[in-house]
């Protein structure tokens, strides 16, 4: 019986990249799921749940995220200050109008495992209401959100469209 040899990945050996997610017209849960997979490093071949080897995710156009069903009326964000009477209930329809960044952060925060790496993962999530994140993170690689398959090097990156060049018919006989 032969045993396969496993190698441990050290944090110093991991290369971190940044990915840009354009959330215009996408559903909140799908954006949060994609961002969670990126910041945890689930697409890397050397993924281990106890090692922080994830990449950074920049979500832009958070104000244009769509809520399905009756979530804008029924789903509630609850916060408590710790003082008597300090509870705050906010419907997601109002939350998406006032602070869409918080809605995305809460969705991603709920999807990350509840362990000591959670806060470190959340530091690599940057959410912007509009497209100002493109200017602040110019090195972030855009993701094709229509086909966000996660592979060993990271998600598929949207490639710029290349114009096809017509070959000239010089030197050919009619």
Q: Class by helix and strand content?
A: alpha/beta
- CATH 4th-level superfamily of the domain at 14-68 and 100-152: Ribosomal protein L13
Number of helices: 6
For the biggest β-sheet, the strand order reads: 5-2-1-6
Mean pLDDT: 85
CATH architecture of the domain at 14-68 and 100-152: Alpha-Beta Complex
Any idea of the CATH class of the domain at 14-68 and 100-152?
Alpha Beta
Low-confidence stretches: none
Q: Distance between the terminal alpha carbons, to the nearest Å? A: 70 Å
* CATH fold annotation of the domain at 14-68 and 100-152: Ribosomal Protein L13p, Chain: A
Whole-angstrom Rg? 21 Å
Residues in helix, %: 25-40%
How many strand units? 8
- H-E string: EHEHEEHHHEHEEE
Approximate strand percentage: 15-25%
Shape: globular
Query: What can be said about the biggest beta sheet?
Result: 4 strands, parallel
């Amino acid at each position: 019986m032969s045993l396969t040899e496993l190698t441990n990945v050290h944090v110093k050996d991991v290369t971190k990249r940044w990915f840009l997610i354009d959330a215009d017209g996408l559903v909140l849960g799908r954006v949060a799921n994609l961002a969670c997979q990126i910041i945890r490093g689930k697409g890397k071949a050397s993924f281990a749940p106890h090692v922080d080897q994830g990449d950074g995710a920049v979500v832009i156009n958070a104000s244009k995220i769509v809520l399905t069903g009756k979530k804008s009326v029924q789903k509630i964000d609850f916060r408590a200050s710790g003082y008597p009477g300090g509870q705050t209930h906010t419907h997601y329809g109002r939350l998406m109008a006032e602070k869409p960044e918080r809605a995305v952060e809460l969705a991603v925060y709920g999807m990350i495992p509840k362990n000591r790496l959670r806060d470190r993962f959340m530091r690599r999530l940057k959410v912007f209401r509009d497209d100002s994140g493109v200017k602040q993170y110019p090195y972030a690689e855009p993701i094709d959100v229509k086909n966000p398959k996660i592979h060993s090097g990271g998600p598929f990156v949207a490639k710029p469209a290349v114009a096809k060049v017509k070959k000239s018919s010089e030197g050919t006989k009619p």
